[in-house]
Amino acid sequence: MIRKIVKFPDPMLQQPGEPVAEFDAELRQLVADMFETMYASQGIGLAAQQVGVCKRVTVIDLSQAKDPAQKLVIINPEIIFREGKQYEEEGCLSFPEIREKVVRAAKVRIRAQDENGKWFEMDGEDLLARAFQHEIDHLDGMLFIFRMSALKRDLNLRKIRKMQRDGVW
Ligand code: NI
Q: How many angstroms separate the alpha carbon of residue 136 from the centre of ligand 1?
């Protein structure tokens, strides 16, 4: 089922997610719905807060449903290693139309659970590293607009306010 995507400035987006303790049917349904919702909006990552569920669950698929091997379910994650720096453009399904460069680590290693509760570690670099950092930020209630320079952040906040006034946000 496609769920409604929560848009900035909904306070849900700045609330840290609760750790997942039950790896049950409800969680599997949430994960399935998150993939469906993300694909419907051509996204490559989605956090549970973005569908109104305050839990530490995120899904990533850089292939946008073209390669099943790239479907990642990441639950209760933490970044255990980071290296280098990258400065590339990012977007976010909770900020339609907004794209901006954000500083991120070039490589990260995460430790997380899959939808069955099994712990795993995974390395990512470039786009995957960026997706890990962007989505894990969401689970901490942190949004990419607050990772931008103050100048870019203010410009984008003004853009959003204008879209809100025009009724297109
Ligand atoms: Ni996002």
A: 9
In this structure, what CATH number is given to the domain that contains residue 108?
3.90.45.10
CA nearest 77: which of 47, 111, 31? 111
Q: What are the distances in angstroms from CA 65 to CA 3, 70, 111, 147?
A: 17, 8, 23, 28
| Cα–Cα separations (whole angstroms), residue 49 to 85, 93, 138, 140, 152 | 27, 11, 7, 10, 24
Annotated active-site positions, please? 135
Phi, psi of 40 (to 5 degrees): -65, -25
Domain that holds residue 128: 11-165
Q: What is the pLDDT of residues 108-127, one digit of tens each?
A: 999 999 999 999 999 999 99
Residue 137 lies in a domain: yes
At 48-92, the pLDDT tens digits run 999 999 999 999 999 999 999 999 999 999 999 999 999 999 999
Structure confidence at residue 82 (pLDDT): 98
Query: In angstroms, what is the span from residue 116 Cα to ligand 1's centroid?
Result: 24
Q: How far, in Å, is the centroid of ligand 1 from the Cα of 47?
A: 7
Phi (first) and psi of residue 132, to 5 degrees: -55, -50
Give a yes or no: residue 2 inside a domain.
no
pLDDT tens across 154-163, in order? 999 999 999 9
